[in-house]
Design goal:
Blueprint lengths: L4 E2 L1 E4 L3 E3 L17 E2 L1 H18 L7 E7 L23 E9 L2 E11 L1 H20 L4 E2 L1 H10 L8 H13 E5 L12 E5 L6 H7 L9 E3 L2 E4 L1 H10 L4 E6 L1 E3 L4 E3 L18 E7 L11 E5 L13 H16 L11 E8 L3 E3 H13 L6 E4 L14 H13 L2 E5 L21 E6 L23 E4 L7 E3 L6 E4 L5 H14 L4 H13 L9 H4 L9 H4 E2 L3 E10 L3 E8 L10 E9 L14 E12 L5 E5 L16 H6 L6 E6 L11 E10 L9 E11 L6 H10 L3 E4 L2 H12 L6
Parallel strand pairs: 2-27, 16-18, 16-20, 17-18, 20-21, 21-22, 22-23
Antiparallel strand pairs: 1-26, 2-35, 3-28, 4-8, 5-7, 5-9, 6-7, 10-12, 10-13, 11-12, 14-19, 15-25, 24-25, 27-34, 28-33, 29-32, 29-34, 30-31, 30-33
Helix pairs in contact: 1-2, 7-10, 8-9, 10-11
């Protein structure tokens, strides 16, 4: 039997550094771009039209409008000084979306809210600059003009060179500015409607438009449940205030039940009390099941209609996998043992009120803070929108930030094997969305696809969810049976996540990174069917996640960054007998950023820009990391993004990053020391005050099959690293000792 290597945990000193370039740098005009001077006059007229629009309507405490850009723009190329606002321009952002062409994003549209006097000042500023340049017989703004102003100074009285250059650069990226009208459907159903945040309380603002709302209609301060009559009124007087509207009633995505005779109950012991507890939010649980002693059931459906027998099936099936799945599906035995479930049956089969479910979920999570992993195998039959995060996903992301938890969510099933996008809430960015594969490893024909917001990988991972030739064995009332679906793939990932967090005592960032890293493996990356299986299929056995092959070194780094830059440069990578670096290398990075639906497609607020690779010293002695990267040209996810370098090469704003490098031949030029550098950025201009935890899983594979883990451990210890092994038996002993009662006489 091959002896596997344990995963190593490296603990050392990370160094933090501030951003030495804060306060502004050199201003660059976009190359090969010019525009007529009349463009500045057109933008001024756009702002005047916006002022006229809002002058004839009830006050919202300012002016709401959208800037339509010519392309997808980096944060550094968004409007900076064209809008004469007090304070940080990022504080005026109220939404972001993409304009699409053939379903692909081609342009950014950013919605802002500023004061009327700021709008007037912006108009006057544009008029003054345009008039002065026209008096100088300048008709075109180009790189030549930009360079001349940079050398000679500003020709506009009272306007500094920096401010003028920034204005000219801002205008180069803008197509036009306007008030956009939102959409509200006319059907006879209640609608969850999100409004842009303005300078007036939402209830008062709507009241002045003749739409009176009650406190019970609020989901949060900017989201309401509107009746058909309220929608009808708003469609005539206030669609420009609407950010997003979706139907309140959501049909649960279909589950494929296999018509076969039930199976006998299996023998099961009583729980000992030290098993991990997984929270389950689903349909009702049948307390007559043979494993009911392992489930703390809370059946409290939000539907006012009395439940029927079908309402007990799905939730009980999901719970049966978490508690006793391996006993019914021996091929899928993951080695995690039985687990306890705290089950909250709040949904019914068929249609459910999204509004009522979300309010109930917040109540449940806030009252059960001892649970760190939640399984949600419910999902909407309707597809998620390409340009929006669903209210359900945004709600789960908010809870994950607030309570330090992880939701494991089924990626939903397609109806009649159609090609469909995932359904809510599988578009949760921080949660783990789970697609389904067949026994062969190919995507199941019922699993749905991502990505989310055009470049977030969803689902994250895949797991066996059953197929006609090998359905998933579950227990449902009255006698058990079999079923197929992503609903039954997600619980296996929830079990593994709970095992890593509760049994192995890993932070959620490390547990999620290990799961995804195990799915990536070696070979082609990104995966051929990444839209349906994400980063890949997670191994069945937990040991294959917690241990590595004899020719592999896998180690885990975890830290919390509060600085612009956090780094270490002294990871000693072994060389072979010829003094050559001879490893394939992979690094998987995971963190849980705060998210904001108000930011639209720019949903994640914090970015950790990660560099991993050998350390090279510049001529001045400063260290520099020679980063490993996936070949961007082979990754179709990023082919349509214009913010090319950042999003193609560095997976910018993604909360999971995979860095991957195959070596062609051993290399003697590599430094023996490798490093990790994390640069933190924030969309709103302020770094996280509580710090941003992150984890990095590094896997090195010796190309000639040599086991170098002991040399690596010795070299790390010689460099001052504390090296621990993530050994299952040791962790179990520690857990047992920690739970022993000590009696003091």
């Amino acid at each position: 039997m091959i002896e596997l290597n344990d995963i190593l945990i490296l603990k050392g000193s990370w160094t933090g550094a501030p951003n030495t370039r804060m306060g502004g740098g050199e201003i660059h005009f976009p190359r090969e771009r010019s525009y007529p001077l009349s463009h500045l006059e057109d933008l001024s007229q756009n702002l005047k039209d916006i002022g006229s629009f809002w002058a004839g309507r009830p006050s919202i405490g300012g002016c709401l409008f959208s800037i339509h850009y010519r392309e997808l723009v980096a944060k550094s190329n968004r409007v900076s000084l064209l809008l004469s606002v007090r304070g940080n321009i990022q504080d005026t952002v109220r939404g972001a979306r993409f304009e699409l062409d053939d379903g692909l994003p081609v342009k950014h549209v950013i919605t802002h809210f500023i004061q009327r006097q700021e709008l007037s000042a912006s108009t006057e500023f544009l008029d003054r600059v345009a008039a002065t340049l026209r008096d100088l017989s300048i008709t075109t703004v180009s790189q030549d003009l930009f360079t001349r102003i940079g050398k000679q100074g500003s020709p506009v009285p009272g306007v500094s060179k920096t401010r003028l250059l920034t204005l000219l650069k801002d205008a180069a990226f803008i197509e036009y500015i306007a008030v956009d009208l939102g959409e509200i459907d006319s059907d006879e159903e209640d609608t969850i409607t999100s409004f842009y945040r303005t300078g007036v309380a939402l209830g008062r603002m709507l009241g002045e438009l003749g739409v009176v709302v009650t406190p019970e209609q609020y989901l949060d301060q900017n989201t309401l449940l509107l009746t058909p009559a309220q929608k009808q009124r708003l469609r005539h007087v206030g669609t420009y205030l609407v950010s997003m509207a979706v139907s309140d009633l959501a049909e649960i995505a279909p589950v494929n039940t296999i018509p076969e005779e039930g199976s006998a109950d299996l023998p099961i012991p009583e729980p000992s009390g030290d098993e991990p507890v997984v929270g389950v939010i689903d349909t009702l649980f049948d307390c007559k099941s043979y494993f009911a002693g392992w489930v703390e059931a809370h059946n409290d459906p939000v539907s006012p209609v009395a439940p029927d027998p079908q309402d007990y099936r799905h939730g009980t099936e999901v719970a049966s996998i978490i508690v006793d799945g391996p006993a019914r599906n021996p091929r899928l035995d993951d080695g995690c043992g039985r687990m306890r479930v705290r089950h909250f049956g709040i949904a019914v089969h068929g249609k459910n009120s999204r509004f009522a479910l979300l309010k109930k979920i917040r109540e449940i999570v806030s009252s059960n803070t001892d649970i760190h992993v939640w399984n949600v195998s419910l999902g909407s039959e309707a597809e998620t929108m390409a340009n929006r995060i669903s209210p359900e996903a945004a709600f789960l992301d908010e809870l994950q930030s607030e309570f330090d938890i992880t939701f494991v969510v089924a990626a939903t099933n397609s109806k009649d094997r159609q090609d469909q996008r995932i359904g809510a809430p599988a578009d949760t960015i921080n949660g783990i969305s789970v697609g389904a594969i067949c026994a062969t490893g190919a995507p199941a024909d019922y699993t749905r696809h991502g990505p989310v917001l055009h470049f977030f990988v969803k689902p994250d991972v895949a797991c066996f969810g059953g197929e006609l030739s090998e359905p998933m064995r579950v227990w449902r009332p009255p006698f058990g049976g079999a079923a197929i679906g992503t609903s039954f793939a997600a619980p296996w990932i929830a079990r593994k996540m709970a095992y890593l967090v509760e049994k192995m005592k890993l932070p959620r960032e490390s547990a999620k990174a290990l799961l995804i890293d195990s799915a990536v493996g070696w070979g082609d990356y990104p995966k051929k069917d990444w839209e349906r299986i994400g980063y890949g299929a997670v191994p069945i056995r937990i040991q294959d996640i917690l241990q590595s092959q004899p020719d592999e070194i896998r180690f885990l780094l975890h830290a919390v960054t509060k600085n612009y830059r956090t780094y270490l440069y002294d990871i000693p990578i072994p060389r072979n007998k010829k003094g050559e670096f001879n490893f394939h290398a992979r690094a998987t990075v995971c963190y849980y950023p705060v998210c904001s639906r108000e930011q639209g497609v720019d949903y994640t607020l914090t970015e950790l820009d990660v560099r991993f690779g050998r350390v090279k010293f510049k001529n001045n002695g400063d260290p520099e990391i020679q980063d490993i990267r996936i070949p961007a040209t082979k990754d179709p996810r990023f082919a349509f993004l214009r913010e090319k370098t950042a999003r193609q090469m560095f997976q910018k704003w993604a909360n999971v990053k995979v860095l991957y490098k195959d070596i062609k031949q051993p290399n003697k030029s590599y430094s023996p020391y490798w490093g990790v550098r994390i640069d933190m950025a924030d969309r709103l201009g302020t770094y996280s005050k509580r710090g941003m935890p992150f984890s990095v899983v590094v896997t090195l594979k010796e190309a000639d099959g040599v086991n170098e883990i002991h040399r690596f451990c010795q070299a790390c210890q010689a460099r001052g690293w504390i090296v621990e092994t993530l050994n299952v038996e040791q962790r179990m002993r520690v857990n047992t000792q920690a739970q022993e009662e000590i009696l003091l006489e």
